[in-house]
Fold each of these.
Amino acid sequence: MAKVLLINPVVREESDPKHIPYGLALCASIAIEKGHLVQFYDENAHRLGDEVIAQVCAADDWDVIAIGGLTTTYSNIKKTLKIAKRVSPRSLVVAGGGFLTSMPREVMDWLPEIDLGVIGEAFVTWPEVLAKVDAKDLDFSSTLGVCFRDARGKAHLTPVRPNIHDLDALPYPAWDLLPLDIYFKNSNLLSSDEGFTAQRRIDMMGSVGCSLICRFCWHLGTSGDMVVEKNPEDGEMDVRFTLGRNIRYHSPAYIAGMAKALVEKYDIDFVSFVDENFMTMDISSGRTWLFELCEAWVAAGLQPTCRRDGVPHDRGCRGVHWSGTSHAGLLRKETLDAMFKAGCASLVYGLESFDPHILKTLGKGSTQKKNMEAVKLTLESGIAPMPNLIIGFPDETFDSVRTMIKCMKQIGLHSKPHFATPYPGSEWYYNYKESIIEQYGGDLEAFIEDLGDATKITAVISHRFSPLQLLGLQEIVHRRDLRLLDLAEKHWGRSDESTVPLAVPRASFNMVSKPLKAPLEPAARPI
């Protein structure tokens, strides 16, 4: 059996480690089920530096050293892979996750240390790769869903690996391999009273994918949205992301069973569902999934005693509260009431904007009225809403920012907005790719290394505002100061810079809105 080392890179260096590496822990569990020998090093949790990473990579004669993460982990992954290849040159270095799937050809060029890339969903591809390693067969040219190197080191993509249909066939993540004590120590979240008092919070995933077509978001092969075909610019095989959707979710019984197992094994008291969007799963199921999940949660004995008894939450409460994601245009009062009773403490809402024109261009299917009602209805249900706002959209204007501030004042919302960011895999990335490269002096990799969680400005895609102006607008929105906004607009009208757009959209091969020639699988209708 293969000896496998899995490494979780640092996710957010500026904050404490709060979220377990759910996907990598699943890969570990799948490998263990197949009989392979697996070790796990979680640098995000330990943060012990390069010397310890080198010691871990040299600790055994690993057949495979594997790493994965989102694009925002690229810089840390780059550093870790150089260390791994230096101290363990005979190991097959395998990489996967969003950072690679979004732009496999570029990443394989930038990181020659990667021997094999796993593109899109890895649940079937990963054990096939390990089986070939175990058989001493390193020819991956016929393996679906990978980016392999030929004898000259050139990278080649194979056809897409179809997504699995039954998520319940997956094992539970290999929690025992993770330093859960570190994550439990950072359990509290400033999202709700229940989240702040949590002592043993853990992440779970109830679904994969999202039916929405938001221009700023990505799905990266997990939603039936990815095809591999020839790039017309150079004739080489490349990924392209489409509007295809294949929405999948665990059964309520599976989710409640996992939570109950976590209570019995680790005495957890809070679950953060890290799904792309809980509420779209409810729509995809015909408005049954969330109700059934709540019923299964209560039936499994997970309902917090404060919700059961109808009393305020305190530290004496027993049971498991939970949080998730929602969509302002899809919620219903009866759904929120059922979620509250089962223990839901908070819901994250990507409101993005309150301006009607901006909302219409996002592809998210919400309106100003629905955004404002969502906050009100969620508060009335007893669940804490966590609204996220964004500024710096392509069509952002002073009027759209003014509308945002007025609506924030009307519903009593305080928020420091994020910046619109063209992450690889999103439609905006492909539309503005030429502008992004120009903003980084011709160095696309520099942009990738600069990406974070959209709390700082990277590449600007606003047609009207410069980085300097966006920083000022962020603070004005944070203060909800209409007077300063009026003064800024008056000054902006005298600025020569305002007449020169920084970001200009360009169509490209990978543009999301390009239709599929034929659907890969039956897809849920986009909302």
Amino acid sequence: MIEANESSRKRVFISYKRSVEPDESIAMELFRALSQQHDVFIDQTMAVGAHWAQQIEAELRTTNFLVSLLSEHSVGSEMVLAEIDTAHRLGKEQAGHPAILPVRLNYREPFQYPLSAYLNPLNWAFWKGTTDTPHLIEELQRAISGGELSVDAPSKDALVKVSAPPPVPAPLLAAQPVPVELPEGAMDTESGFYIERPSDALALETIGRQGVTITIKGPRQMGKSSLLIRTMSAASDAGKRVAFLDFQLFDQEALSHADLFFRQFATWLTDQLELDDQTEEHWNKPLGNAQRCTRYVGRYLLRELDAPLVVAMDEVDSIFGATFRSDFFAMLRAWHNSRATNLLWKRLDLVLVTSTEPYQLIADLNQSPFNVGQVLELEDFTSAQVADLNHRYGSPLNPDGELQLMMLLNGHPYLTRRALYLIQSRHLSITDLLSHATDDRGPFSDHLRYHLFRMYDKKELVAGLLQVIRAGVCQNEQIFFRLRGAGLVRREGSAVVPRCRLYADYFRENLHA
């Protein structure tokens, strides 16, 4: 094949999940084929570390196209999602570059949130088996040269298994239908692997009442979204209307302009309830943003609905950096307070999910929605809960193995599920899992690389985490709460320690101040 001239050569980034098939083989075939005409980057042999994360970010920033390989394995990959998320953000900042080219590798399930938010509007390519590889290469070449991938909106239903809509929106990726549940994302309400904690009973009892405010808080991957799904399902079963809003979907422009944010919030809420959008009429009033939004909800949405309304808000700390965050949360507190004097507002329930310590979101306690109603703080699994989960997976570990897993992961819900899934599926033994826990291609590599990628350029967080690992302290309380919100550290008496030994071992080796 004749190489392209310099003016027609493009930069291409291939995103895939390592160490699984057919993902890795297809990724390498695409790399070899596309490299004859373009400058192609693939993360195949790079050593993990701060420089690795820096290069991934730099390559995504300068690439023209992100080719994302999506299989039953990769749709739950934290690193694949991080690369798509980064490309989506950069595309908005850089006039559409990189463009995302999704490729389904014999995967016919609908994309679940958050992948659906990024990929559903896009055309994509479909690969059924090895005989499709030459055609896939040609299709990607055409797209890189200015064409389109073949599967557009009218063609999607023929290729994708369309599931019946759930009774309430599921905010995160549900487990795939396999004999032993894949440990990825939020858990289905019918999952036999869901471990109930005391907070579950409180959430379900509270949402059954009228006019309530619930805050679910805890570090990343603690099970907050799984509990939110169950709370929304219970609300729906009780005859309430549920509107789910994930604040991660607000783009940077909305987070930079209060006028745009409040109006998008009202429009999005209306869309979730499948009502006619009447924001234009209410936004023409000479009022402040919080007043307009309150007027819109009180005089239109609550009156229009024939049932109580639950507004479920996930990842509300996504507006942590917005200058108007205190105004927004003060508005929610005002809605909570309005129930005491206005029966109409008793028809509104609020459920907020955050991994950031609430006082960082709004300093004035009298204006905070996070210190009223039912506040639920989730914690890692206890030894007894790990033993319960081990039993549900068919007891692949004996009591000594349970203890070893607890010593490594300290009951981290997601990592514990992943470890038991891998061991039960006979992918590796407990001995192999422990000895290769921090390896670049080990059982937790995707998860660990995700954290490294998200943190490498935040020098204050790197310094804070290293201080925790080396000295058992974090002198900056703001840094502590950010690390805790990311799920990396915890308090143990007066000391601050890594959340688990796995994190201590990995980041001691791979982080550099």
Amino acid sequence: MYSKAEDMRRTVVVAEDEITNLLLLGGILSIEYNVLTAENGVQALKILKENAGRISLLLTDLIMPEMNGFDLIRTVKADPELEKIPIIVLTSSGDAKTEVECLRYGAVEFLPKPYGMPATILARVQRIIELSEDKSIIQATEKDLLTGLYTNGYFLEYALRLEEHHHERDYDALVLDIDRIKTLGDLYGEGKANRALQLAANEIIGYLADVHGIGSRFNQNTFYLLCEHQESYECLIQTIERSFSALDTDVRLSMRLGILPHIRNEEFSSDVMGQFMKAAAACSSLKAGGPSSIGFFDEKLQEQKRLKESLLKDFDQAIEQRQFVVFYQPKFSIEEKPSLRSAEALVRWIHPERGMISPGIFIPLLEQNGLIQKLDRYVWEEAAWQEAEWKKRYGISVPISVNVSRIDLYDPHLVQTLRSIVERFKLDFDEYLLEITESAYSSDMAQMLDVIGRLKGEGFRIEMDDFGSGYSSLTRLTDMPIDVIKLDMSFIRGLEKDVKKQDLVEIIIAMAKKFGNLVVAEGVELEEQFNILRGFGCDVAQGYYFSKPVPADEFGKFIEQKCMQEGRVC
């Protein structure tokens, strides 16, 4: 039994058949260490195994009965539980050949007999133990436990050294993203997702060995690679894709590979991370979730990156200064004489220096950086206020639909927030419509059903936006408590000259109406498209055939026309 004080001290094992030497060395070491002693290699091995994980050092003589020191060293280094224990050889021979042999077997130091000053022995033992512990710490933190690739800090340091020591070579920086890893984990469990990462890492390690490179798992599903320049990386992508067949799942994983080719030595040495950020920008520019693809960095991407960083910096001020302006695109009932039915609220950013910024730039940017909810609430408030103003001015109601982002549906206060907006501006619930993008329904079906059910319970009408853009299936019309489906504009584009597309649209409209859903077609630009949709029984159309999105004051003209059609005085 060890006392608490002894438990806090490191433990060493001394194997020595000369009792005098054993007692002498054991006594010196016991000043600072717990000492376990053995008179031969067999005893020493037994002690080591019984105390595996607690031993900081083995000191062994070479000439011992039953099992000599050479065999003991070999046995210890061949045992996975014991191999990391450092070994000091106790020797009186001074034989260089013997010492070389011991080093080859795995010994790290020699302690000559007769033993010298205790302080010298203790200092040498302390040094060996500390070096061993430092090495263990480095090994534990150097590699990612899941994949065996370098961790971030070590990778960046080794990447710099690799380039410095081989600056005559031509290197590429690569950033590889594996898409749908989260989906795989959600459907099949974390173990399956981890297995996919391990399969990819195994192929990456094998590939890097052939192209003189190093790699790191930089975060959950992103890998950083540095290797000698290759003309093509298609084989890397294909090899990883083939390895995924071992997963035996219905989730098709794909990859995006961003490349910064021909790294400049001076730029790399001064800003290692910056070079990989360029490769990451090339990776981010590729479409996520599609087929595997490869993209190369160019200065245009750098400009886009700087623009995005600038917009993120300006966002809060833009909200405060009301730089975001809500435009409204009218929706018309499809009749012989179309009439205004409602409007969709669409936000525009009018930047004081950059002018009008495309929603295609700032909406995905805000989604990726967790800011879209703040903008959504701004738009919800603006649209509700505008609806109330139109009711006061014209005396009629023109319902407005606002977009609810996927991330909004995870807000526990969403229902309360939307209800309070409607009540504050004295609107009816059927005057304030909620558009939820169809892809959001695939994220967490139970969560979506719960939230949408509660919104419906309050009286809101729900529109499934972009129906058919990604995950749709007609069975979804039976699953979801929705009121309206909006056909994605991809169905409408080219509708007038594509018979198969016409057949598909006709089937979707018929099915939706069978289930009691109103059908809206967005992206209508031509009279031929309008006439085809009317023939199929589509209820509402939206698009440039009627009007582009317009500011609120300009939209007032559409309301005035509606008043005239209905014989009202507005």
Amino acid sequence: MHDIVIRGGSIFDGTGTEPFTGDVAIDGGKITSVGGKAGPARRDVDASGGMVTPGWVDVHTHYDGQATWDPLLAPSSWHGVTTVLFGNCGVGFAPVRPKDREAVIDLMEGVEDIPGITLTEGLKWDWETFPEFLDALERQPRAIDIAAQVPHHPLRVYVMGERAVRREPATPEDIAEMRRLAEEGLRAGAFGFTTSRTDSHKTTAGEMVPARNAEVAELLGIGGALAATGTGAFGMNSDFDDETLELDWVTRLARETGRPVWFLLTDRPTDPTRWKRLMAGVHEARRQGANVTAQIAGRPVGVILGVASSLNPFSIRPSYAALERLAPEERLAQLRDPELRARILDEKPSADKVERLPQFTRAIATRWDKMFIMGEPLDYEPIAENSVEAIAAREGRTPDEVAYDYIVGGLDRFMFFPVTNYVVGDFEPIREMLLDPATLLGLSDGGAHYGSIIDASVPSYMLTHWGRDRTRGPKLPLPLLVKQQTNDTAQFFGFHDRGRLQPGLRADVNIIDFDGLRLHVPEVVQDLPAGGRRLVQRVEGYQMTIVGGVPTWERGEHTGALPGRLVRAGR
């Protein structure tokens, strides 16, 4: 008598092979048989006509804070994600001394757009060191599995104090201590170490993050912790100011440590061929025996613009800025006043507000040709004729008027502005990256950018757009799309007990109505500590999600079960 048998589904086992029809049996939290006809069960689940896949393993999230107060970790858990990895981009909340708590909150707010007041209210701070942070996470019940990486910025502040904030060079003693603490975190179960070296990451005051200009000696020194433990990956977000220098030390680090090294890669509006140069560098590093990988996104990283979100083309104009402290409902009512409308439309963006925006987001002030109305059905690969600029030309209005009048139509109205990965106006560069064997799918940023970006839905989008709905170019095979966000992500980071539907592995499973899988337009909900608001994106089509052999979501409803846990590397 099995615990659960999923019967008659189309099984995509995560290996990339073609699907086959059969049963999946689960006992004691593990998969015990795949394919064929399983025996009787305490619970039968009819999956006929549906896809049966491993649970998604999402390796680029920022649930560092939310994981301390939210057991569900939505919206990722709505989208079939059963394991999340956070501590990305060098930001996080450990190690941290009590006197530096406000500073690391400010870092997370500035870099990942998570309201400081929400973090101040939500974080319990029952830790100081990174191992203590993991222990605190382990005490919390939750719906899905979580895992963490050691973040560079708080580590640097912990060791160097104000010198880190001033971005001073680390001394040999500083480097040795950071390496010791990184090793301590890895031995406690961290899945790696991350840093960021990009102008896109700033504090709320517009200052660069502590490790922005960390010297190569510091990076190699800390990276030695991975060699000492034989575990973990080294990850970063970098502007590649000097591409040759950056690729050289990344290659050296991977070769000397024997550990995987990854960096984030998208195309950039200011340099359309940059991604190809960097991918060539990845392949050269691999030819030299270095395990270097580019982590990529499955769709454009796009800002959601509206009255209810934290950013729109008018929020950087003086008269709109005066309304920022109002509740969205009150702000919307005032924006509908004809006199205020005329005044805002007549104003120019405030230079200091534009300067504080991340480098590529600043284009919302001028690039109406890259701004698109979000409606039903959702279109993340829109044609130029549907841009705000094109609509304005057809209607004989200015782009400002088209955008303003649309977003003041309601708090549920948003525009989409692709920040990266849409330089050529279609997905061909993304498709090439997805098909490159030296890339890894990630960058969903679940748990971050609460007011401006909602990409936690990417795991579902990979199936709907790339596997079913795309019309502007070739689709991608469903077995590949499943493999890229299950086996590939799991194996890269060392989650060796999951990511495939095979006997003996952890029973993390999705049952999906592929034809009925559908993303909804983003919406704003007010469910954060201190009454904070955030963007979420709902989905239809997940018939069931199972975590560790326990059904957690059935047809969009949480079952009440909380079988998730903290996963420690090597345990």
